[in-house]
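user: Here is a favour to ask of a fellow structure person. I have my own habits and do not want them to colour yours. Could you put it straight underneath, so I can go through it closely?

assistant:
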Amino acid sequence: MYKRVSSKVILFMMGFILLYPLPRVLALQNENAAAALLVYDSLAIGTENEGNVEALQRLLASFGVKLTVQSEGDYQSGSMFQYEKVISLVNEPELPEASRTFANDLEAYPGDFLYIGGNVPAKVKDELSLKLQISGQESIRLSIGPFMEQAIQVKQIAYIAEAEGKPYGKVVSDGNEEPSPYGMIRDGIAYISFFEKGNLSEIAMSYMLKDWLGMTEPSEHYVVFKEIYPFSDLELLVKLADKLYGAGIPFMASVRPVLSNTDYPAMKRYLEALKYVQSKNGTILIHAPAVASTISELDRDLRSQMESFIDVLADYGIAPLGMGAELYWSYDSYYVEKAMSLFDSALLFPNEKLMHKSRTNTSQPFASSVYSLQPDDLEAYEYKEKLMKPLPMDTALTFDFAQNEAVLNEEVQKLIDGWTMFADFKAGEHSVKTAKNSIVSRNGILQINGQSLSLVSERTSIDSDYIYEPEQAVSFEKWFAVQNKLFIGIILIAIAVFAVLFFLGSRMYRRKYFK
């Protein structure tokens, strides 16, 4: 009897475990495991399409995609079959086909496929029952969701005249007021008429990507301030924290790490300011350290220095929850291994200057990845609603930390006056791990090694009297002091004798002259 009962209990428990939903963080990690291949025809350097590949990389990173990027000319036969999803981006449709191998593989590819631009392959046309109208250079109006942008100049565009599937957005040309869909999806096959960095097509692309990738998680808006250093105006940083806290706006601070001399008073004041920011509903991110062109693996152990800084923060009661870095860091195996692997959350900024150590064409995905936007980017578009809804991906309005209070007040007032609801980053699940510390956030609670942190903090004054180098023992100190005094005495006597001789000589000369 007991054996029968036990077996039933075991079967019940096994069924409960299988059916019980996993926590959100595990679901995110499983979604991020999906791999995608991006194949482009040209980087279009020197044209209006330059930067399109990077823009698409940033969008895909914000959805947690593990992306491999390669040119069509470098494509190897059969390689697309290793990926669940494939994207083809055409920047220059007038170029001849770079690889017949890619086109042949595409005909047999069973996975989801997204095509962007002109010269649409037969597979896409057939799957979407697509009929296109090719147009030359003209001005168009693009709208999607609550956004609209007027007068976008396009060099060439293939309008969707007919198609079967789910349409996205509307494109209207100056010569034809009849709107056509911006893009179309049907059974995993998708087509987008055009994509260009710097206009509304970036946002429009995100609406399509979310559905095409099968993402269902709700997204949020965040605020982040970067370019914060130990030598920044820390009193101004404290004022920023007070103003945003008073306005009920949670925010993130992406702060530069200190990789040495962490016992100096300047570092203590830095820690005090960051701890105060954390107490005012601020979240600390660690910004990627500056990279010099002469850096080498022998110059420093980046991982140990990053771990050391994280440990210094943790020991002071500060819980960093992610890393801020330019996009190219996630495509570099050295930076990923030595720094980014310590975090499961990242805020990826646009590339400013590529400084690779060990470049790779496959990105490092994160359980939580936030898309960075400048505040002026959205202001360029018309918005039909009053309350700004979240974009399809987690997005952070990014400000450089102000250099003076006037600029700071202007930026804060803009956030207060805006109709955007900003989320608290630490309300999500984030994890940072070093050999010494495990830092996590869950539902707004910060924990270091399982111990919850108190977010109540008063600033402590840091004594600036600090001996930066210990005094060295000196020999013959008294003898050198006596010697110095002796030399001074001799010099003074010599000056006195010279003065007397000068006086007597002048008198003798004057008497001789008068005679």
In short: The chain has a mean pLDDT of 85. The CA atoms of residues 16 and 44 lie 54 Å apart. The first helix runs from residue 2 to 19.
